[in-house]
Write a structure and sequence with these properties.
With about 120 residues, the protein is mainly alpha-helical. The chain is built from seven helices and no strands.
Length: about 120
C-alpha cells in the first residue's frame, strides 16, 4: 500500500493516475497558455486557469518540473487582474483574488516565495 496521507491524492496509485492525466490531456500546457494571455483583455480566462492551479497545483498532482513556474505565473497574473478597475468595483472580489494568491504562494518552495 502506497499511502502517505489521508487526502485522496496522497497515495502512489493517485500520483500515477494524475501523471497519466496530465500526460494524456496536456492540462498543464493548456493552463500555461491561458495564464500567458493578456490580463486586460482576458482576465476571466486567466482566473479560470489560475483556479485549476488552486485546486490541483500540489506536489504529486501537478507536474513537478512545471509547478513553481506555473504557480509564479498565476500569482503574477492574478496580481495584475486584482488591480483592474472593473475588479476593484465588485465587493469581495479583490479579497477572493487575494485568497487565491495566498493559496498559490503557500505552495511555492520557501526560497521562491520572496520572488513571487
Amino acid at each position: 500500500m502506497g499511502d502517505w496521507g489521508l487526502a485522496a491524492a496522497d497515495n502512489d496509485a493517485a500520483a500515477d493516475w494524475y501523471g497519466h492525466l496530465f500526460d494524456s490531456t496536456r492540462l498543464a500546457a493548456h493552463v500555461e497558455e491561458a495564464l500567458n494571455r493578456d490580463p486586460d483583455s482576458e482576465p476571466d480566462v486567466i482566473r479560470a486557469a489560475a483556479f485549476v492551479l488552486v485546486q490541483l497545483g500540489r506536489v504529486y498532482i501537478w507536474p513537478v518540473d512545471e509547478m513553481d513556474r506555473h504557480l509564479k505565473l498565476a500569482i503574477q497574473k492574478l496580481e495584475a487582474i486584482r488591480e483592474l478597475e472593473e475588479f476593484q468595483e465588485v465587493d469581495g472580489l479583490v479579497a477572493e483574488i487575494d485568497n487565491e494568491i495566498s493559496i498559490l504562494r503557500s505552495r511555492l518552495r520557501p526560497e521562491d516565495r520572496l520572488d513571487a
